[in-house]
TrEMBL record:
GO terms for MF: DNA-binding transcription factor activity; transcription cis-regulatory region binding
Protein name: HTH lysR-type domain-containing protein
Stored InterPro entries: LysR_HTH_N, WH-like_DNA-bd_sf, WH_DNA-bd_sf
Residues annotated as domain HTH lysR-type: 1-58
Family of this protein: Belongs to the LysR transcriptional regulatory family.
ATP-binding listed as a keyword: no
Keywords for this protein: Transcription, Transcription regulation
PANTHER family assigned to the protein according to its UniProt record, in alphabetical order: HTH LYSR-TYPE DOMAIN-CONTAINING PROTEIN, HTH-TYPE TRANSCRIPTIONAL REGULATOR
């Protein structure tokens, strides 16, 4: 006997008619009649007395109705409990993941599923509305079904390897991602007079800077996490970010 059989029996008891129960459930009357016979056969008891006026539950039928309601209520409760325990999904860039999740520990890994993408992918995923929360550096499109629930700032500085030789001649590294705010701020506000090299991820940029291959605008929190880095000057920068929640 499956869960659907309990639903059928519940409607048969409440409607006192196979025809009415079939209409409520959207089934053929013959199918409902067949399922009732199968239930009675499986439990070895007559659950209804059939008359021209409809169905009259027997004593066994009354008990089975109580049992049916208990099963259906408990099933619904467990469905709700399992649904509430499902992890919420978060879309974020690599840098914001490191900052908000790893460094600040604001969202527990055990409670969320994370999708890490390039910043150029954020708006496309926002339009799909398949994630509960989005971390971004900018406003999402006005057509997206998300609302801003928090805003913040990330402190940043121009950084260099502690052991770097001839720092004034090192190239400036920026992210290849055209929408990366660190790239934009680097190109708009930092002028070293040296070549600018595009690198495909922040982790690669960090590795190259630590290897004394260049300098880059990086988040200040990295000074606590990465050995071998130091600020290349006193200029302070801020990178704004937003947290969006699905409506």
């Amino acid at each position: 006997m499956n869960l659907n059989d309990f639903l059928i029996y519940q409607k048969l008891y409440e409607e006192k008619s196979t025809n009415k129960a079939a209409k409520v459930l959207g089934y053929a009357q013959s199918n409902v009649t067949m399922r009732l016979k199968q239930i009675e056969k499986e439990y070895g008891a007559q659950l209804f007395v059939r008359t021209s006026k409809g169905l009259t539950p027997t004593i066994a039928g009354e008990k089975f109705y109580t049992h049916t309601n208990k099963i259906l209520i408990e099933t619904e409760n467990i469905k709700k409990a399992l649904k509430n325990k499902q992890k919420a999904s978060i879309v974020t860039s690599e840098n914001l993941f490191d900052y908000l999740i790893v460094y600040q520990e604001r969202y527990a890994l055990a409670e969320y599923d994370f999708t890490i993408v390039k910043t150029t992918e954020i708006n496309r995923l926002a339009d799909q509305a398949q994630h509960d929360i989005i971390f971004s550096y900018t406003e999402l499109p006005t057509t997206s079904p998300y609302k801003v629930i928090a805003k913040g700032e990330m402190n940043a500085s121009l950084m260099i390897a502690i052991a770097a030789e001839q720092p004034n001649s090192l190239p400036l590294f920026v992210n290849k991602d055209k929408t990366c705010p660190f790239r934009k701020k680097s190109l708009d506000e930092i002028n070293t007079g040296n070549p600018v090299h595009e690198i495909d991820s922040i982790r690669n940029i960090i590795s190259l800077v630590k290897a004394s291959q260049g300098i880059a605008l990086l988040p200040d929190y990295l000074l606590e996490q990465e050995s071998g880095l130091e600020k290349a000057g006193t200029e302070a920068y801020t990178i704004e970010y937003q947290i969006h929640e699905l409506l």
